Amino acid sequence: MSNPVPIGRVVATERDPTTTGNLRFWLAPGIDLKPFDFVRIVPPEAVGPEIGEFFAIIDEIFQVSDEDSALSSFISSDFGDSGQRPRVGRVVTTYADATVLFNTCDIEMPVPHGSRVHWPDESGVRRALGIDDYNRNTPAGYITMSGPEHESITINVDMDADYLIGPEGAHLNVSGISGLATKTSYAMFLMSAIQQRQASEQWASDEQASFVVLNVKGADLLRLHERAQDMSERTRQDWVKCDLEAKPLSDVTYYYPYSPHGAARAQTKLEAKAVAENVEEGRAFRYIYDVDSVLDRLLLLFEDMDDPNSTLVSCAEHCIGKTPREAPWATLRSNVDKWAESTPDKKIPVVSWRRFSRLFRQRTRNQMFTEESNKAVEYRQVYLSEKLKDLKPGHVAVVDIAELPDYLQGFVVADVISALREARAPGTQEECETGSDSGPGTVILFADELNKFAPSRGGARSLVRYLREISERGRSEGIILFGAEQFRTSVDDRVTGNSSTQVFGRTTAVEAQKDPEIRGRPQSKRVPFLRKGELLVSHTRFSSGTLKLRFPRNAYRPG
């Protein structure tokens, strides 16, 4: 798609020389460019072909004239007569600053003065970005850039799955203000891209991932298997631009908190008719917690409470040590009430037991804390930890926690993380020798509202630790975190900082200045002005560091 007529020429001046990483060029009249566009640069004939061609990305565009000052312009217009033609004509030119990404001969020398600037073609841009060298290409969106005759050029862009979901790098973080359908939509788009692409021959069977999605708010993620009802032809074409099919996620199972009012009733924001349909078609379950499944995680129920003297910890440890695993909830609650009347351990004062008893009653009042019924199959009762250990490649498990209070949301999230880590732990020697310890393979965990579970200050201490461990060691364990939040600065920096892929949607100017990850990028001033469906994406394998990408609307039905 290259044009034989240059669109400009590189200029190296005494004041602004070209370098191995940066250059400046003036534009021919009538040429339109915008930041994040790509250009191909051909050195002058006198330099010789051995230096190769350069590819660069536009950082900023300027216009300059030989006008001395605003005052001289004011005077030349008859002292401010804006309707009068200026008496003195001025020489005006437009020039652009760009960052060098790639040289076809692997030459690291400044771009020569007088080099010709051309429109690039798609293969050249993908080569400049390093996409052709990826091991497992994963669609990440597409670029729409300026082109000849004022026609745009569309180029699909891939990420390298080895650096998105391991083993070389891992984790994704998406930030941006609410209401633009960007953060969650982009994470779901990437999951759909991974699910579709890993079915190709490029992905080996032992590299395929499964997915665990936490539905934190509303019913946004409770219809992932349903095709969007209002999908336009433009949306379908946008998916084609990414070399994907416009279709919802497949092989999806939903897990709702248990409610004892019929198999189709659950604690969820999804309407009862849709829940009943999912149950009837075998894609929905209701999760419960009996005493045995809670004892090991009992402390997580009180994570958000101040406990300077660790009295809540002491009471919880006593419950764990003195409660039989097969005990029903009525027995445990009765024992806690009894210990609140007369402390069984002189080291724990009665007042501490009373506080523990009050909190314990309140926080285990939810209907999901119950015993397994003799009609467990009919009632669709399951234990989350058991189901998540049996994930198969390509499967999507949606855990609904939107109707639960914050302290129970944190409890379930911690249970999900613990179950995934236990499933990934090395098996027994016998399992290793027989090969029966297959495990769920790589698991991608998506958590929206990440600031709620791993806040930068305060919050549930153990849950923050769990998420830190995933971000720091999850790559080696095969657990990959896809996190999203409105403001990156509100999330623990050890959780966000370990993500090899950072995505920025539109955010406020204040947040853009507060966040060093945004502030340190060349185009940080443009973040507050990104439009719906536009993102700045930083992926370890992008030679440009940051790209402005567009992605298609999701093909699943929104909640």
Q: Main beta sheet: strand number and arrangement?
A: 11 strands, mixed
Report the radius of gyration as a whole number of Å: 29 Å
Overall mean pLDDT stands at 88
Shape-level CATH architecture of the largest domain: 3-Layer(aba) Sandwich
Tally the beta strands. Answer: 19
Please state how the strands of the largest beta sheet are arranged side by side: 13-12-11-14-10-15-16-9-17-18-19
Distance between the termini: 42 Å
Describe this structure in words.
- The structure is a single chain.
- The chain has 559 residues and is an alpha/beta fold.
- It has three domains: 8-120, no CATH class; 158-286 and 379-427 and 436-550, 3-Layer(aba) Sandwich (Rossmann fold); 292-363, no CATH class.
- It is built from 19 helices and 19 strands.
- An eleven-stranded mixed β-sheet has the order 13-12-11-14-10-15-16-9-17-18-19. A six-stranded antiparallel β-barrel has the order 1-2-5-4-3-6.
- Helix 8 (311-322) packs across helix 10 (350-363).
- The longest helix is centred in the C-terminal third of the chain and has 19 residues, at 406-424.
- Mean pLDDT is 88; it is low at 428-438.
Layout of helices and strands, plus pairs?
Layout: E1 8-10, E2 22-27, E3 38-42, E4 54-65, H1 70-76, E5 92-103, E6 116-118, H2 122-129, E7 137-145, E8 153-160, H3 161-164, E9 172-175, H4 183-197, E10 209-215, H5 233-241, E11 252-257, H6 272-280, E12 284-287, H7 291-295, H8 311-322, H9 329-341, H10 350-363, H11 376-379, E13 381-382, H12 384-388, E14 396-400, H13 406-424, H14 429-434, E15 442-447, H15 450-453, H16 461-477, E16 479-485, H17 493-496, E17 501-504, H18 509-514, H19 516-519, E18 534-539, E19 547-550
Parallel strand pairs: 9-16, 9-17, 10-14, 10-15, 11-12, 11-14, 12-13, 15-16
Antiparallel strand pairs: 1-2, 1-6, 2-5, 3-4, 3-6, 4-5, 7-8, 17-18, 18-19
Helix pairs in contact: 8-10, 9-10, 13-16
